[in-house]
């Protein structure tokens, strides 16, 4: 009986042609929302003079997110599936509580300018290798260029802009001028997009290269695991082969027969790396029993991380500097530094963390491995410290500060209609198989008893 149920489930959840799982996976029916909570710096003058930053949270700014997988192509035995993915965002004013990202201004760090200044720091360090007095002349020249350009374009380390520009990008004349001016200076990485925007999001975008996953056919434990993401089989920038690996699924579907002892590997595209979730508790929604998995504290601790991820500083943040455009020192944490060392919260005045509101989780139906309710919550922080040679950064607090810029929440959940469909397509057939097996066993048993009685 168990074997027949396993066969049925494996067939249903494999990402093969015409399977129920392929249909739901490629065009999810559940509503998915991307919510942004911005951090507004309320004491910019004091902060620039070395005082502790004070921030307030403003949001949410909510967008309907739609992801569609298209151009699905299988290999000859349907064990591997290749596809492209389209992602689109539409602003949801109702869920944003009336907040309009085009009309709400936020005071925050000028992220592209930081990238530009740190690129020029490379020149200053290089000038130190020149013989005197050339080294001093070059260093002074670079500092003068930075100062004069900033004056001419009125460029400031701290800026105030609409939320829409901070998220979706804007053209900065100063940075465009510098990028064009130094386009042929190859060791200065200024050829990348300098149009602002923390994520450089677009309202509609397609993956540049194909994604490729195992379908689970013949090997259910590999269901939905990546072989390739966006045309890449590894992520350059990280320091070891292990750190560069693309492991896990996109957290929509795992292997059938998930247990509480499983460690679920996930590839997180926003972090350019893989992570994992561990069991937290049992939970029931819409009469469907699930296991809740959460991002463990160990995922944010140096002792448990591969050295190729360049973890440094106190526990609680992930260092993305090596893979972020212009190598801007971006560090990711749980919102409000949940599960992080108190070092981070001691250096800012801001609201406290709340586990139920700020932790990421996956509610997984264990029979199928389907994720029926999920929340991915990440906070983007920038590492700021004094640079004596760069005027705009010379008066910052002496201690290295990790200033929160925003946190983002991506959520998708069940409704009664989806839950009813799930129960009808999964639970009812399983019950039928079990009842049929019991009936066969009962009839067989009765037949055997009759033979024995005849003797």
UniProtKB/TrEMBL annotation:
A UniProt-annotated Pfam family: CD36
- The keyword Transferase is assigned to this record: no
As for subcellular location, the record says: Membrane
Which InterPro entries does UniProt cross-reference here?
CD36_fam
One GO cellular component from the entry?
Answer: cytoplasm
Signal sequence residues: none
Q: Is the keyword Acyltransferase assigned to this protein?
A: no
A GO MF label: scavenger receptor activity
Q: Which of UniProt's keywords are assigned here?
A: Glycoprotein, Membrane, Transmembrane, Transmembrane helix
Q: Which family does it belong to?
A: Belongs to the CD36 family.
- Identification of the protein by name: Uncharacterized protein
Q: In which organism is this protein found?
A: Amphimedon queenslandica (Sponge)
């Amino acid at each position: 009986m168990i074997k027949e149920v396993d066969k049925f489930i494996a067939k249903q959840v494999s990402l093969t042609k015409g399977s129920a799982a392929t249909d739901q996976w490629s065009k999810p029916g559940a509503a998915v929302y991307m919510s942004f909570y911005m951090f507004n710096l309320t004491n910019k003058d004091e902060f620039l003079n070395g005082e502790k930053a004070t921030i307030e949270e403003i949001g949410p700014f909510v967008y309907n997110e739609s992801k569609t997988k298209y151009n699905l192509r299988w290999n000859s035995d349907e064990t591997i599936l290749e596809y492209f993915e389209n992602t689109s965002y539409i602003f949801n004013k109702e869920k944003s509580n009336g907040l309009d990202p085009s009309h709400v201004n936020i005071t925050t760090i000028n992220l592209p300018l930081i990238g530009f200044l740190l690129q020029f720091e490379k020149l200053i360090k290089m000038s130190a290798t020149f013989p005197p007095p050339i080294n001093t002349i070059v260093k002074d020249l670079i500092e003068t260029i930075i100062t004069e350009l900033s004056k001419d374009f009125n460029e400031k380390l701290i800026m105030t802009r609409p939320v829409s520009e901070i998220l979706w990008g804007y053209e900065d004349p100063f940075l465009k001028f510098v990028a064009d001016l130094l386009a042929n200076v190859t060791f200065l990485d200024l050829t990348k997009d300098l149009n602002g925007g923390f994520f450089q999001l677009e309202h509609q975008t397609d993956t540049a290269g194909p994604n490729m996953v195992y379908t689970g056919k013949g090997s259910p434990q590999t269901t939905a695991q990546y072989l390739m993401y966006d045309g890449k089989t590894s992520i350059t920038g990280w320091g070891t082969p292990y750190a560069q690996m693309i492991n896990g699924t996109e957290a929509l579907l795992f292997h059938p027969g998930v247990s509480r002892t499983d460690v679920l590997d996930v590839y997180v595209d926003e972090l350019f790396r893989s992570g994992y979730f561990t069991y937290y508790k049992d939970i029931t929604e819409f009469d469907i029993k699930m296991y809740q998995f959460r991002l463990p504290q160990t995922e944010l601790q140096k002792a448990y991380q591969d050295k190729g991820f360049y973890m440094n500083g106190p526990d609680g943040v992930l260092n993305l500097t090596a893979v972020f455009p212009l190598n801007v020192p971006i560090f990711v944490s749980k919102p409000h530094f949940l599960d992080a060392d108190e070092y981070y919260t001691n250096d800012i005045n801001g609201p406290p963390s709340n586990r139920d509101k700020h932790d990421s989780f996956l509610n997984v139906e264990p029979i199928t491995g389907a994720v029926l309710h999920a929340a991915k919550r990440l906070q983007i922080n920038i590492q700021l410290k004094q640079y004596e040679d760069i005027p705009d950064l010379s008066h910052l607090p002496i201690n290295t500060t990790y200033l929160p810029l925003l946190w983002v929440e991506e959520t998708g959940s069940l409704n009664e209609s989806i839950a009813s469909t799930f129960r009808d397509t999964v639970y009812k057939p399983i019950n039928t198989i079990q009842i049929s097996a019991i009936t066969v066993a009962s009839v067989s048993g009765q037949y055997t008893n009759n033979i024995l009685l005849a003797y």
